[in-house]
Specification:
5 helices; single chain; 73% helix; mainly alpha; Helix Hairpins; 145 residues; elongated
């Protein structure tokens, strides 16, 4: 039984790692989800103990550990929320760039950053405007009162 869990964990982790190496954002999120599921399965398999449910006090019977189950349930909820948020961010990126390919998005971001950088002519104009404003605001002759 341990071999089956080990093979399932290894295959989920390998598939998730392979998907995370792709350039597509949707595949990246799918890989993240698969690695999270592999981690949850690993936690459950590491504390695998057969026994009754721990509802009533036991008279010496073997009981299943409820802490591991609670931890995995919490991890499932958190990973679901993280995946939902990541999918919303990917949707927003797709609507703005019309692509989910990481290299296309990176190229578009580099082009936009080049357009946003101030040019030398713009910097000279703003410096001249600042100097003119300083001259207009400062009085040329001080009049004694």
């Amino acid at each position: 039984m341990t071999l089956v869990f080990s093979m399932a964990i290894a295959s989920l982790f390998a598939a998730g790692a392979y998907l995370m190496l792709k350039r597509d954002l949707i595949r990246l999120i799918a890989g993240m989800i698969m690695i999270g599921n592999a981690a949850n399965l690993f936690i459950m398999a590491s504390a695998l103990r057969r026994g009754r449910a721990n509802i009533l006090p036991a008279n010496g019977d073997r009981l299943a550990d409820p802490l591991v189950q609670a931890m995995v349930l919490t991890a499932i909820v958190i990973s679901f929320a993280t995946a939902a948020l990541a999918l919303v961010v990917v949707y927003r990126v797709y609507t703005s760039h019309l692509s989910v390919d990481i290299s296309d998005i990176s190229a578009a971001e580099e082009e936009q950053s080049e357009l946003d950088e101030p040019r030398a002519e713009d910097m000279i104009e703003t410096e001249l405007e600042d100097e003119i404003e300083d001259l207009v605001e400062s009085p040329l002759v001080e009049v004694p009162l």
